[in-house]
Amino acid sequence: MWRNPAEDFTKVGVRYFSRHKGEVNCCVFSPDCQILLTCSDDCRLHLWNAKTGQLLAKASGHEGPVKSCVFSADCVLFASASHDCSVRIWLTATAQCARVLTGHRRSVETVSFSPDGKRLISGGWDKDAILWDVQSGEIAQIFAGHTDAIQSSAFSKDSRLAATGSWDYTVKVWNLHTEEREITLKGHRGNVVSLCFSASGMLASGSWDGTVRVWLPRTAAAIFVLECHRAWLRGVAFSRDGLVLASAGENDMVRIWDMSNGKCIKRLQAQKDATLSCTFAPSGALLTAGSVDPSQEPELWHWDY
Questions:
Q1: What predicted TM-score, i.e. pTM, was given to this entire model?
Q2: Which of 5, 79, 148, 272 counts the highest number of beta carbons within 10 A?
């Protein structure tokens, strides 16, 4: 008998990561779920043992707050985007900087690796999305079209599409293998701050209007509009199998949605402060919600099912 996986979510522990000296802006798991990567307003990135909470390494070099971070699919590299207008590529084994990518004219708010590991996409306050060749560090293409800052980005699982979300309230989907004009997804009434593709090709967009929209990006059709959070939404993440979607917002709840019908099937109470982000580990077994109180140290909550 089929059982909805969200019914089995249980809180299995809280890890306190107290060595950042500023707000944690992003947290991501390595593909093998062994390492957690965090970046902060303190201009640093930290690598942690995801099971024990032990600090493994610090990555320093940015001259401004680090806004976004991401691992490559093979975990050999990680990348970061910063207020200092640069993107950096780092070696995971040593936490040493391998390349500094310059091309943005203002703060870089988002960076994403393609699943095949060949490209990065970044975006920020200059309104441009830049596609980078990872091996050479050169700009492969610049996508223009947003009318305000870009705050989120994602690649489709086949690496053929890239999506960017903006303060202009739209999502743009760029085809990386054809000369087709970008597809613009409209409907949000606030900044689009989080994007995620599912294994089947659905695209979820989370906005400060408190909603998540789930799209078929090639046709610009909205499948679901999830009226989910009373305050700003911070993050969205599909489970590995795409059966459920998690959303995190500033009202401290992580909500789990059934992607067969768009219904909320679970609410996870994190803590009394704002939930900043959520992500499923690549194994599909662990959900992390990142929260911060300005008067306390950053912390991460772990959920299992």
A1: 0.90
A2: 79
